[in-house]
Design a protein that fits this description.
Number of domains: 1
Bound molecules: adenosine-5'-diphosphate
Order of helices and strands: EEEHHEEHEHEH
Strand order of the largest sheet: 1-2-7-6-3-5-4
CATH class: Alpha Beta
CATH superfamily: Leucine Aminopeptidase, subunit E, domain 1
Structural class: alpha/beta
Oligomer: single chain
Number of helices: 5
Number of strands: 7
Length: about 200
């Protein structure tokens, strides 16, 4: 409708590090993005749920839950701030890293440390599995209630630090944000840090 057209939103943003590694933000569905590893925002029972977890299991098929059943039988689950690895079933990836983010209470119950740990554990798993491209959702900012304005700087800081390391096998990190509003928060934060760090 004339007069009601919204300005065209930028839905892809890329930051390149001096070593050639890239960090990219897109709006989309993480189950449709090709990557060596896709990160899932899982719960500590590894039991499956809604949100991105439900989407990953639906799109990936039953083999992912079968692998999680084995992990659960062996080790009982996955503590907050940690991650476990499975195959990716029918997803366009080799692995799914199931990371357990913190449930947000008020920000003073170690939530920032647990959230940072999730990203670091996934990046460690990426190194161990020779993963060159890895896509993340915005962990904990859905049902777990982490304010996205507080979570985005942590997510971007941990992944940027990793990409900046000269020896990392990870070539590219992709954040797949599920709404334009989430993308806008991440892109503003990335723009602020890239301007500050040159
Ligand atoms: P958590 O319990 O860690 O908060 P959720 O799955 O509820 O996990 O939400 C995490 C983020 O993932 C939210 O921003 C949500 O909008 C987003 N999300 C949900 N489905 C998808 C999807 N298919 N692709 C990418 N992100 C998704």
């Amino acid at each position: 409708m004339a007069g009601h057209a919204r300005p065209l939103q930028l839905t892809v943003m890329e930051h390149q590090f001096s070593n050639g590694r890239t960090l990219k933000l897109v709006v989309g569905d993480i189950t449709r993005q090709q990557a060596d590893a896709i990160v899932n925002a899982a719960n500590s029972a590894l039991a499956g749920g809604g949100g991105v977890d439900g989407a990953i299991h639906r799109a990936g098929g039953p083999s992912i839950m079968q692998e999680l059943d084995k992990i659960r039988a062996e080790v009982g689950g996955c503590p907050t701030g940690h991650a476990v690895v499975t195959g990716a079933g029918k997803l366009p990836a080799r692995f799914v890293f199931h990371a357990v983010g913190p449930v947000y209470r008020d920000g003073t119950h170690q939530e920032p440390a647990w959230l940072a740990s999730c990203y670091r554990k996934c990046l460690e798993l990426a190194e161990e599995n020779d993963v060159k491209t890895i896509s993340f959702p915005s962990i904990s900012t859905g049902v777990y209630g982490y304010p996205i304005r507080d979570a985005a700087p942590i997510a971007l800081r941990e992944t940027s630090r990793h990409l900046d390391r000269p020896e990392t096998t990870v070539q590219a990190v992709l954040f797949v944000l599920f709404s334009q509003a989430d993308y806008d928060v991440y892109s503003a934060c990335l723009r602020a840090t890239s301007t500050r760090d040159g």
